[in-house]
């Protein structure tokens, strides 16, 4: 765990830059851990920590990788570090991460979930940006994701479902998209563009590229049977 999300995210970049390749490296901010705890009481994670990394290493190089990861995390102001040898306890920690999407959906009446990705070198800047807008806005925001890939899931949560509040959330979403593109990232790390993100696609792709994609789809799907009205 870390006292600030930036130190946590910097550890991610430093681990990747060092050449270490953990089998899993997941990031959670403090509100993500809190959401999971509200949904289902859990033990083993400090709810007051500003940033949390869950890391799993390969069996063959476990001792070496663990030692190097400890050094890197301590260099980035890690406040608490534990190697969990008990598989049952480790599984409980991973359950917290697996519950996050469902937990975020269950605890708020209004939820807009985004899935963006940036180069790992820019991951600390993205995490810092999300932390900043969370502090400045009246909307509850949590973030978590596959940190080693630079992938971040950002949930905007509120129990105010009014049109006025929804517009606030949508504006925050747009600011996230703009920042992601500024950092050289992509609007979707895993789940595609679909309907909700297509308004933002011109931020990432120029008109020539979009026209080529339209022409390509029309060539192979002239009657628009395949995934109709999603992007085009």
Write a compact overview of the structure shown.
The protein has 232 residues and is α+β, with helices and mostly antiparallel strands.
Task: Describe the 3D structure.
It is built from nine helices and five strands, in the order H-E-H-E-H-H-H-E-H-E-E-H-H-H. By secondary structure, it is an alpha+beta fold. It folds into two domains: about 5-100, Alpha-Beta Plaits (2-Layer Sandwich), CATH 3.30.70.2190; about 110-215, Alpha-Beta Plaits. Strands 2-1-4-5-3 form a five-stranded antiparallel β-sheet, sandwiched between helices. Helix 1 (about 5-15) packs antiparallel against helix 6 and helix 6 (about 125-135) packs antiparallel against helix 7 (about 165-180). The longest helix is centred in the last third of the chain and has 20 residues, at about 165-180. About 35% of the residues are buried. The mean pLDDT is about 90.
Care to count the β-strands? 5
Helix content: 40-55%
Quote the average pLDDT: 89
Poorly predicted residue ranges? none
Number of helices: 9
CATH topology of the largest domain: Alpha-Beta Plaits
Q: Please indicate the count of domains.
A: 2
Provide the succession of SSEs: HEHEHHHEHEEHHH
Q: Please give the order of strands in the largest beta sheet.
A: 2-1-4-5-3
Tell me what portion of residues adopts beta-strand conformation: 15-25%
Radius of gyration: 19 Å
Structural class, by secondary structure, is: alpha+beta
Q: What is the second-level CATH architecture of the largest domain?
A: 2-Layer Sandwich
- The CATH class label of the largest domain is Alpha Beta
- Please give the largest β-sheet: 5 strands, antiparallel
- Bulk shape: globular
User: How widely separated are the two ends?
Assistant: 43 Å
Oligomer: single chain
């Amino acid at each position: 765990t870390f006292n600030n999300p930036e130190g946590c995210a910097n550890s991610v970049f430093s681990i990747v830059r060092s050449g270490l390749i953990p089998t899993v490296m997941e990031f959670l901010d403090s509100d993500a851990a809190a959401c999971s705890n509200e949904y289902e009481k859990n033990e083993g994670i400090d709810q007051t920590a500003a940033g949390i990394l869950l890391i799993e290493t390969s069996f063959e190089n476990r001792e070496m990788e663990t030692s190097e990861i400890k050094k890197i995390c301590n260099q980035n102001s890690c406040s608490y570090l534990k190697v969990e040898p008990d598989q049952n306890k480790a599984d409980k920690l991973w359950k917290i991460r697996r519950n996050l999407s469902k937990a975020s959906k269950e605890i708020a009446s209004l939820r807009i979930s985004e899935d963006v990705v940036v180069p790992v070198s820019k991951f600390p800047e993205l995490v810092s940006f999300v932390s900043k807008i969370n502090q400045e806005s009246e909307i509850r925001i949590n973030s978590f994701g596959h940190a080693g890939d630079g992938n971040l899931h950002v949930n905007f949560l509120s129990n105010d479902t009014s049109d006025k509040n929804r517009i606030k959330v949508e504006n925050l979403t747009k600011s996230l998209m703009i920042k992601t593109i500024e950092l050289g990232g992509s609007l979707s790390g895993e789940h595609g563009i679909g309907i909700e993100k297509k308004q933002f696609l011109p931020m990432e792709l120029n008109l020539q590229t979009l026209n080529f994609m339209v022409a390509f789809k029309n060539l192979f799907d002239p009657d628009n049977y395949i995934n109709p009205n999603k992007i085009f």
